[in-house]
Amino acid sequence: MSTSNDRMDARAWSVLFVLAGAIFLEGIDVAMLNVALPSIRADLGLSTEMLSGVVSAYVLGYGGFMLLGGRAADLLGRRRMFLFWLTVFLLFSGLGGFATEGWMLLVARFVTGVAAAFMAPAGLALVTGNFPEGPQRTRALGVYAGTAAGGFSLGLVAGGLLASIGWRWVFFAPVVLSAVILLAAIPLIREPEEGDRPAGGYDLAGAFSITGAMLLLVYGVVRLEHPGDGIPVTVGVFAAGLVLLAAFVMIERRSASPLVRLGILRSGSLLRANLGALLFLGSFAGFQFLATLYLQEVRGWSTLQTGLAMLVIGVDTILAPTLTPRLVNRFGNVPVLFGGLVAAALAYVLFLPMGLDWAYTAMLPTMILLGVAFSLAYGPLTMAATEGVDEGEHGLAGGLLYTSMQFGTALGLSAVTAVSVAALGEAGTPEAALDALRAALVVPVAAAVAGAVITAFGLRSRTGVPQNSTPAPATGNVAA
Question: Which residues contact 137 (CB under 8 A, 6 or more apart)?
Answer without folding.
Answer: 127, 128, 131, 470
